[in-house]
Amino acid sequence: MLKKALCIVILFLFAHQLKAQQYGLFNTKTLFDGFENPAQKTFTLDSSRKYASNFFLPYLGANVASKGNDDFIRKVINEQVYDSKNIPLGQKGFNTLYQNTNAYLLTFKVFNSYKYQKELGFSWQLRTDGLAKYTNETLVLVDNYQRLKNEMPKRGAFNDKGYAQTYHQFSVTYRENYTKRLAFGAKLSLLSGTSYNQLNISDSDLSLDQTNGRLSAKFVGNYRSTFKDIDELSTNTFMPTFKNPGASISLGTSYQSKSGYFLMANLKDLGFIRWNSQSYYKNVNEVIEIEGSTDNRDQFQNRLSDALLKNAERRGFYSATNAKLDAMLSKSFGLWTPSIIVSKNLFYAGGDAAMVNKFKYDGFSVSATPTYNFQKLFYLGLQTMYQTPNFEVFLGSDDVLKTTSQVKGILNKDATLGKSYNGASVYFGIGIKFGNYVEHPQNSSTMPGIGEQPQSVFQRIFSIFSKKK
């Protein structure tokens, strides 16, 4: 049933979603920073050891947010009760549920050369991106369509759209200094898609036959998915098999000015996935007859599900990864380091503007990060970290206030706990460095890169373009 499926999907998102953009970790020289922002350093001369890894230890986060019909969603999540009788109809705009995922399962990075500060890294990630925009009328339709007889919606009232995709990402990351102040980095990735689901209703209508009192629902749009029923998903579904291959690239640069300003810019995860020929594709153009009072709710939900999913064509298709552009400006003032970060999705809706306020003393730091999401949501993030040249551990939340109220509501099964939009977030990680120290050549005769005079990769690349001119 669609109602049951919707509840399951919402609960699944709140329980399992991981967020990719923990802004408090930017410019921290952690493993996360080095892999997410490919021009960033992970090692420190005369202090760090040569190798770094998370050794399959936790390096992940969890974040999801829902805006619109907040009390209704809170009741679904906290009390698992679906009751649409108080949802207002005839309002403009969409309700929004969105999430994205980035869990580093394994990371390994090596200090490659003192000259140009070369670093080479390898990583395995599990990622998910998703966004759903739906109307109040849709929530009422799948729960109690009889109500719509008395409050007939306008055309287009069910024009919902959304997508979700999950994939593994296997990456090679390389960074180096171009000059003493300017650095470049790149991340090349091989992708293995595991699941995809997308629905786009471009036209919809609800009509009432005055002679027999029967409702008819019309839907026009398209549907693409790697599965037709949520019961098809299992643990094996999310294992990497490369039946759905893809590729992506990330490019980054950073600059440290003489006056102390730090600037960073990145193009992240620009790529695609080719979903195999066993996937489902359907151009939806259906009119669903509703049998008035003799048709119960479950029968209608099954008919609606069949109209959208039944007789789908089996064929492959492409989807884009959720590429981003982001930029950062930062400067330290003693113990306080403020940073301004702007991040924008390229192909899908969404983005953030954040201000990170980091306070650091010795190896301990605390960061407070107010964030404005372009879905018109405001967050307050909080992060604590202990970091030495060879060890890091951090714990944080992108939305600490909502997380607190949401957890209380779920534990107490009380939908009255919390106000405004719904959301929850937590992230944490551990990283360890080992091996020989990456000492300055004046202090060591075995420093990587000393004696062989390694060349700069990016200098050679840029020299090719300058010769063509």
Automatic annotation (TrEMBL):
Domain named DUF5723: residues: 57-398
Signal sequence, start to end: 1-20
Key words of the record: Signal
The UniProt record lists the keyword Signal: yes
Domain of life: Bacteria
Protein name: DUF5723 domain-containing protein
Organism name: Pedobacter gandavensis
Organism ancestry: Bacteria, Pseudomonadati, Bacteroidota, Sphingobacteriia, Sphingobacteriales
